[in-house]
Design goal:
This protein has about 230 residues and is α/β, with parallel strands linked by helices. The protein has eight helices and five strands. Strands 2-3-1-4-5 form a five-stranded parallel sheet, sandwiched between helices. Helix 1 packs across helix 8. It is globular.
Length: about 230
């Protein structure tokens, strides 16, 4: 039977959530979104109805969040609450209905990225865990681990620039965005290593070829699909 990390949402019975929740975590440039697309196509070829969710995709606040981030002046608490609202809206209106219908829900990042980002910004762990206590415990969580320097190369290949927030420029780690990115991503990876012990992530070597990673993910997902809802 499914369960929540905390009290969950009112009037939602875990026993009614018969689908599967699979999470892919990883930094920008880790290949996470590419693997989410490949995994979705693989699941659908196997006949599984699939719903995709991810950060900043809520119709309720995604546009406002995107606009607010442009100024690079959001406080940590405001940013946290924006993302928490985005997550709660998708949970209630997309994730839970899909799981009730027996779908596979594939999340391109979940609460773990949000917690990691907040913790490296000095967040309060008990408060964050309480805030995200509404989250459903996934059937499996994959973390695509890629070295910070590899992430820089991939981000430059894709965008020809680095993102203010993904570089941790708001933290004052360095005036140089390149150096700030390296330090920030190192802090994020260290936080994920701490969370891995608490949440039991499956660590995936993200430095391999796209095909090799895809095959690895499929092999690890296959047993999850063959079980009744956990």
């Amino acid at each position: 039977m499914k369960r929540f990390y905390g009290r969950g949402l009112p009037k939602v019975a875990p026993k009614d959530l018969m689908g599967k929740l699979i999470v892919l975590e990883g930094a920008d440039g880790s290949g996470r979104s590419t693997q989410a697309d490949l995994l979705t196509a693989w699941l659908e070829r196997k006949g599984y109805a699939t719903v995709n969710v991810g950060l900043n995709r809520s119709t309720l606040v995604s546009r406002e969040l995107g606009e607010a981030k442009q100024g690079n002046v959001l406080t940590r608490t405001t940013l946290t609450l924006f993302y928490a609202t985005d997550f709660a809206d998708q949970l209630e209106n997309r994730i839970i209905p899909a799981l009730k219908a027996g779908f596979v829900v594939l999340a391109d990042r979940y609460i773990y990225t949000l917690i990691a980002r907040d913790m490296v910004r000095g967040g309060n762990r008990p408060w964050l865990e309480s805030l995200y206590g509404i989250a459903i415990v996934p059937d499996i969580v994959f973390y695509l681990q890629v070295s910070p320097r590899q992430l820089i190369e991939r981000n430059f290949q894709k965008h020809a620039s680095l993102d203010h927030w993904e570089s941790g420029m708001d933290l004052g780690l360095s005036r140089d965005m390149f150096q700030s990115f390296l330090k920030y991503q190192g802090l994020i990876q260290a936080e994920f290593e701490r969370m891995q012990k608490a949440y039991g992530f499956d660590i995936i070597n993200g430095n391999r070829s796209i095909r090799a990673i895809a095959k690895d993910l499929q092999a690890r997902v296959e047993p999850i699909l063959g079980r009744s809802a956990a």
